[in-house]
Write a structure and sequence with these properties.
The complex is a heterodimer of chains A (249) and B (308). Chain A is α/β, with parallel strands linked by helices and 249 residues long. Chain A contains seven helices and 13 strands. A nine-stranded mixed β-sheet of chain A has the order 9-8-7-10-6-1-4-5-11, sandwiched between helices. In chain A, strands 2-3 form a two-stranded antiparallel ribbon. Classes of the chains: A alpha/beta (249), B alpha/beta (308). Chains A and B meet through helix 3, helix 4, strand 7, strand 8 and strand 9 of A and helix 3, helix 4, strand 5, strand 7 and strand 8 of B. The complex binds flavin-adenine dinucleotide (FAD) and adenosine monophosphate.
Amino acid sequence: MKVIVTVKRVIDYNVKVRVKADGSDVDLNNVKMAMNPFCEIAVEEAIRLKESGVATEVIAVSVGPKACQEQLRTALALGADRAIQVESDEQLESLNVAKLLAKVIEQEQPGVVILGKQAIDTDNNQTGQMLSALTGMAQGTFASKIDIQGDKALVTREVDGGLQTIELAMPIIATTDLRLNEPRYASLPNIMKAKRKPLEVKTAEELGVSIKAHTKLLSVGAPAERKAGIKVADVAELVDKLKNEAKVI
Amino acid sequence: MSILVIAEHDNDSIKSSTLNTVTAALAIADDVTVLVAGSNCQGAAQSAAKISGVSTVLVADNPAYANQLAENMRALIVELAEGKSHLLAPATTSGKNIMPGVAALLDVGQISEIIKVESADVFERPVYAGNAVAKVQSLDAIKVITVRTTAFEEAGDTGSASIEEVTAICDAGKSTFIGEEVVVSERPELTAAKIVISGGRGMGNGENFGLLEAVADKLGAAVGASRAAVDAGFVSNDMQVGQTGKIVAPDLYIAVGISGAIQHLAGMKDSKVIVAINKDEEAPIFSIADYGLVADLFEAVPELESSL
Ligand SMILES: Cc1cc2nc3c(=O)[nH]c(=O)nc-3n(C[C@H](O)[C@H](O)[C@H](O)COP(=O)(O)OP(=O)(O)OC[C@H]3O[C@@H](n4cnc5c(N)ncnc54)[C@H](O)[C@@H]3O)c2cc1C
Ligand SMILES: Nc1ncnc2c1ncn2[C@@H]1O[C@H](COP(=O)(O)O)[C@@H](O)[C@H]1O
């Protein structure tokens, strides 16, 4: 069984973005980029499926400009067998990404596709669900456990009320939540080896997908700033302020 | 323009997230229909009919919708989408699970977690963990939207909508509900509470969360947590506040032993008043706190509890 895992190149999670002075977008010049943290978890899960003998091949896929090959190489260093970059210039909207991924799935026929639950740049939380709808594959989002049992899979999901377990008919699309696993680091020898692993580049035209704009970004602004507060000396002062100044207790 | 709001409910009653979503819908247009899809959900339908501003409630009462499985729900919603200009759901784990698939089946985009309605096709939404706010215009004929509940008031309960049964049964047979571990608590729900007290890694272990619970009980507050506290197994995942957890905006948020990483701030910085208790005076949480107390939480929290 093949496993496809998707990786998105995003701003590093430690970086606090700034909005451009002209309000057109955020400023990503000279900003550190990395693999989306939820995709790191997805890659780890895919590799574990291979290590446990459930999967035979792990294919990492990224949609983006040439620079995203860096994140694909990381996935290869972590243990993916080969990689596919679907070349695209701009930040594609989730539906377009999902359509491209659906074509890759059609070609590769994986048993399991693992995506992150959310890209930490757009905070969309859409692509996996869209991919399930487009392919008709069963959907298990926000997974904290994925247990493949032959022609079905048990997926435990992190939901608002706690945890929910559903049984899915294979093949499946899963999206990762934070507690699914703890991703490993790539070792230096594996990073060297990854340079020789196959990385194929495809285009939207080759996949027969026409990219369509669904939204127009009108402007990007900074969020409302909170005005600086004060330090209180002790608990008594805190309680006094909350009662008499802020009047919230 | 005609809007369909997908209700979140427990079959007996409507969840408050639905009320916030109706308010967002009414900011777009007057013609608002609410869909209650569930199993033995007439109770929820009755309470949906009382939501102020709602004209019609559609009830799809069938075992296929019992657990709001994504494949069944999205097929049903797509059937009901004809003639609608907007489809709205709360940006809860349920809404997030269902709506993108609806958008894909309709070949339209989704606008996630709107915080403001500028016009029928222009919306504001936070991006990059809330460090930027994007104003986006939808170019699609049907707009599929999830709503950040904390950004909209709850609709009232003075409505008298008509109730219509929907007979469509969409059962994709792809997934089956097996079970759930629901955390039951006497305290108010995290996202709806007026006061929230959250603990982080500084709490040390799960047992110490009892200190926060004691304060919560005196204040009628809900208890939340940082990711670090959940990852460490101190408390359950449903308590995580942040970019990738729950978004809260209570009147008072008390952060205890939480450093204030951007991912945590993304989930609570719209609270009216923020208190931080941390022994490290350099902790970033103090830069957004209205009242900061530099102290050891194991002394400060019991003292706070006894002085309430
Ligand atoms: C993809 C991704 C998503 C994330 N999503 C979220 C999210 O949704 N929510 C979230 O919270 N985080 C999230 N994080 C994690 C976030 O980056 C931080 O790691 C996390 O918020 C830190 O939690 P903390 O403040 O409890 O722990 P720490 O950063 O370790 O801080 C502990 C604090 O406790 C204080 N302390 C220790 N002992 C005491 C004491 N005795 N008395 C008083 N103070 C004490 C310390 O001074 C310190 O400031 C995410 C990270 C990633 C990469
Ligand atoms: N351009 C992309 N390339 C590869 N994977 C992507 C891309 N965009 C989104 N994804 C995947 O979909 C997940 C959810 O993204 P989103 O729906 O955009 O929040 C990400 O964690 C990725 O796994």
